[in-house]
């Protein structure tokens, strides 16, 4: 007989999926000492429209099992310590756009003059925005990156906005979003504003109030998006969680706490989950991963123990009916998280979600025969497998049918006699090869090092997977794997995250880190963890570019829930609000809304394969589709720096939607006497994601021309620009020339060109400085911070002095400014400009969009190379490397982030079919390149990319150099694949989008592309000195061009429709 569990020892885990509701009862005290892993009962039952009914059915069934096996030892009502539930119910309400479960929301921004051009939900799908957003307004408030005030809140302003909200009617929630609110521990602006709103609009009975800082971290738009989704679903979440609690109570489990699992594999108390339902949206995959790890922990195999205690990561392969989901469970016991941003139902957010990769392979995947062999999926019979698969008398050949055919020992699934003649022997071998290849590929893509990792197979479709996989040190198919997600819920821990920015001027990073670790531990204990179990499981320090002595710290702590504490639910026996009570059982029936309002044409509705730009009489009129292409291309040309163009793109798109026109002209068409102005943003990318642009760009232009006029003896001379040009095409500044020139701003055309042809970290790394026809070129200059502060420099000793002085002023101006540079003549512009770079960005972005439209992202690198003049040996561009990032180091020096990225070659081919001889086809590994020559096989090789904000070089790491140690001999010239001023761009292999240096992270699959620099840089030794290796401290390397520069093809020349 098993030892008698202590009172209140058992944990119930329930996972409510779209098809099935799984459950387990688990005794943690037996987890490591019993072959049963402490699993006393488990069940899989159909999910019900009202999930609480399915939960009751699952738990009741498990109680029956428990009584049958442990009747003398256990009384459930006395032994259950907790019930933890994972559910997709909340996220489904958002995905289904169900108006019966979503409330209308008002947004109040505490942002002062900032973000005025980018309203809330600006980047949402039209139907989502119209369904949820009821009102929005900006009021005073917000912080700078150093914690000082942009402005304090004004109570009277907030009171007036509450009156407007009340007038609108039907608004049930208000989101308060302040600039840099996640670091606001002193002024508590969001909290104070929330108190005013509650006082004016009533308590929860009338309106919910959500502070954005409670929902997500840094990233103004993304945090706001998450807060709006969270606010919209609050009433439904409260009702649902109340139903969960009542269901548990009806089972006799009075006083037993109910928890909800969240995205990162930890739990929220029921009432907290009712406040933050968005944090449960992606909990399903996480539950499966943690449950899988639990099932193999301590397992003996070949004399060695498996599990996290060995300090290694593990791969979890969850094979369902339609897809196979793969995630990496880190040594700390938590899933690897996605990069900074995630997307749900077309809405971009920045809260933590597990990094899961999926392929169309499952137990119900349809298998088809063709003249070139067989194919598998991606379509599936899904939950209809028991009717449609051959094994069950159906007519559709599925992977499960084929698996039973190839494995006669499987006798528990259907009628094997029905699949005897389904495949020939040759087709059987093809089937095995394809399934094995697909799973091996996705495992390899998820790995962060060449070392083989254990692979744990779970899910109802795991039977189709082979027992051996390349890249996996072991393949484990543990018992109870079909309910791994419920097990993950039962064992979930408590965690807390501290994400903050600190000044390292008075204290060291190490001192701050210890304080922040302590804070994270204290928050975890406050959330319910037992003090002795809490540990710090994740630490990240990110120095901020162009912000003196500032570092961003992200620390996560986790621990086991403390069941010794008294726990009472705040509303177990409470009543729903009158409105919630009035909602009947149809609350749980999806009622999908269809937006019948006409929508403006957007780039997503345009056929990118046939789209042509509007060029009339040699003037290019920019559309939203053009803007999308250009924005994508700008980030590629940013060579890792320049900041993401996303926020600038959203701003310019709003101008277009408001009726503004944006014109681009060829440099050749600009009169010699023209005045070509320039404007740009300067500052830290971290600031730009939080403090969205206001009017600082236009304010700087206005102040510059005032200064020029007042200093001139000729008062009749007009110093205003007749044209605009971008300072740098790379990154967010690549769009500023068009933004300033828009008809709603300066109403002048933008030149198709820029002063860099890429992005560089300093202002003196520009082609006008290279030509050195007059010096300094960048004074006078004006900068504005958008909050009333303007700096004008009428004179400067040198262009380097301009750069240094502006950088020094940045820290006192919020670490982000708009700058206005003095106009040059049209004749000067023609001599100095890097021509047709707006066209080049457009073509690069179009190449990525077309690759997506044709599902050929596997060839996006080749397409980009061709657009840049590649296609033959020695040409202007080439693919340098394909692999995954396996190492990143960063440090801050003189305001710039220096670092190094290590990339290891890997196979990225998409092997989806086989020939009729069993050989894989459908992708390239080696093979022919775009130039018809044999392509390099990158597998097993490594390169490094040193960067100073932007990428400096791509350098081969010799095979004998097996470490990533910093103390190594200097790089050798023969190992250089490309180096500045040539462009080295890193592309996300999964999306085709550029990856900026702040976004480099372990495990990211990337393609490295080299593009020859403009001859404006390489045509003189001065250009090579200013933009080449020596300018970045690489004196031991010399510039050798990767190919012959080819001037980008002008969109205006190609598509012009001249009308006499």
From TrEMBL:
InterPro entries reported in the protein's UniProt record: ATPase_NBD, Hydant_A_N, Hydantoinase_A, Oxoprolinase-like, S-Me-THD-like_C, S-Me-THD_C_sf, S-Me-THD_N, S-Me-THD_N_sf
Pfam families: Hydant_A_N, Hydantoinase_A, S-Me-THD_C, S-Me-THD_N
Highest taxon, organism lineage: Eukaryota
Domain Hydantoinase/oxoprolinase N-terminal: 11-200
Domain Hydantoinase A/oxoprolinase: 223-453
Residues covered by the S-Me-THD N-terminal domain: 625-794
Region ranges (Disordered): 909-933
Protein name as it appears in the record: Hydantoinase
GO molecular function: hydrolase activity
Domain S-Me-THD-like C-terminal: 798-1042
SUPFAM superfamilies: Actin-like ATPase domain, CV3147-like
